[in-house]
# Entry
Amino acid sequence: MNFELTDDQQAIQRTARDFLASSYKAEEIRRLAYETDRGFSDEGWQRICELGWPALLVDEDHGGLGLGVVELAVVQEELGAALAPSPFLSTIAAAALIADAGSDEQRSRWLPGLAAGEARGTVATLVDGDGWTAVPDADGADVVVVREGDGWALAEAVTAHAEQALDPTRRLWSIEATGAREPLPGDGERAGDVIAVALAAESVGVARRTLDMAVEYAKEREQFGRPIASFQLVQAMIADMRVQTDAARMLVYRAGFLKDQGRPSTTETSIAKLYATEAAQNCAHLAIQVHGGSGYVDDHPVERYYRDVRVTTLYEGTSQIQKLIIGRAETGINALIPA
Amino acid sequence: MEIRGAEAPLIDEAWTYRFLRARANSIEGGTTEILKNIVAERVLGLPRMR
# Structure
């Protein structure tokens, strides 16, 4: 039993932390959120590509680093903590689906470019009429993996229309495929699990940072002549946040570790995804409570986390779906599809 | 929001404002924590915390 990251994993973590702290300060994130069309900057994305992050999961035969889900989780936690807007997860998700469900030809065609950051990808899950909606980072994407029936297909030519989104750092688009679509022949289930763990890891970052913000504020803000951190009910909230953050991180690493070992981990993925996303939502909720009125105003960073994290319990299998997967594993009875 | 599922992050007149506005309700006019103190001290007659 070892609860520490390896030296290499710690190096990735340090690099990510330093890079995000210097490149995604609060003013920059605000600028990206409100003053850019896509919610991220090409320069920022370029620098992320130079760090090799889009290549993390792609195998070495296709120009990737061939690293695992634990390394991805390390990066994702930092991105979540910084709330740094980038098309990273969209691109990773597209590459994971192409790697697992694509043909040899489709893999050779797309993975090297996605790994190098020369191509950008995204995934469209929510079918809406002839197109798809609530698609992240669709504008300017080179390839979109779209849901079609029970499977997936590649769409290269799409038109994207901006939607109004709850979180300005998580832009969403409606898309229509204007060209031919090419089915992915394989099964995307494992890739879906990897994306769920990545989303859970991002949630751990949100939980961690909202905890840090709550602690900092509670120690500095005075009421009745003393810091509010000295009030028992405030400490109770902070303790709840700490426990949930730690538990979420452990569950995420367990799911990632099992994936990297090639061991069955569908249930552990659901447990991690359910717990981490709910924990992050609760931590953002409590952080606002600790901040009181000043956390509620539009200008305060803590409210951005509250908006940002709302979607995590819904994407990649809602919390309700995750509970039914866990319940099925425990009881042997499938309640996912009503009898 | 949970029932809206993956559409929840899209701004909707009926849902989004209420979702965000509702977060203030346990803060404004006395936070939940302050109200619990009031219940403890004035209703239950428990000793003051400080």
